[in-house]
Amino acid sequence: MPTYNKLVRDKIPEILEKNNLAYRLKHLDKDQFHTAIQEKFQEEWTEYQQAVNNEEAVEELADLLEVIFAMTEIHGRTKEELLAVRQRKFIDRGGFYQKCYLLEVEDK
Q: Keyword Hydrolase, does the record have it (predicted)?
């Protein structure tokens, strides 16, 4: 039986059962989850960086977004609140669509 030792999505046990695959899992406490979700972020970020085409890249970005939503709950917020903060920052400071790369700023 291969060992994974990683955080998985909520429906993975159900999928494994439907495929008649034996598995072992444990439910994490708050501190364990905090560590595991940070590791999952790194895993998904690495997979995004290694994507070989746009389709793979978007799949990995979707995984990253799901991880970010889970991380948001650790901080006592909802994904809607996160998106509202994102919108406010977009209105105040813009996005990254103009591809501006700041080289230097004059000191006062």
A: yes
